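Lecture notes, part 5. Sequence design as translation. It can be helpful to think of inverse folding as translation between two languages: the language of shapes and the language of residues. The source text, in structure tokens, appears below.
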């Protein structure tokens, strides 16, 4: 398991909730290595698609 920390989370209604609003520096949660790998692949695909749109 890996510990992932982020300064904000996005709620189901689309709003961002910042850790500082709750008196924290970051929200931390555990993820498996498989979940982290899937996220990294999804992020890379999204970044590739953005660069393709800019090139056109």
């Amino acid at each position: 398991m890996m510990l992932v920390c982020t300064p904000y989370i996005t709620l189901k209604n689309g709003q961002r909730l910042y850790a500082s609003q709750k008196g924290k520096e970051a929200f931390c949660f555990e993820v498996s290595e498989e979940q982290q790998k899937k996220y990294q692949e999804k992020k890379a695909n999204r970044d590739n698609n953005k660069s393709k749109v800019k090139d056109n």
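The translated text above is only one of many valid answers, since several sequences can fold into similar shapes. The chain is about 40% helix and 30% strand.
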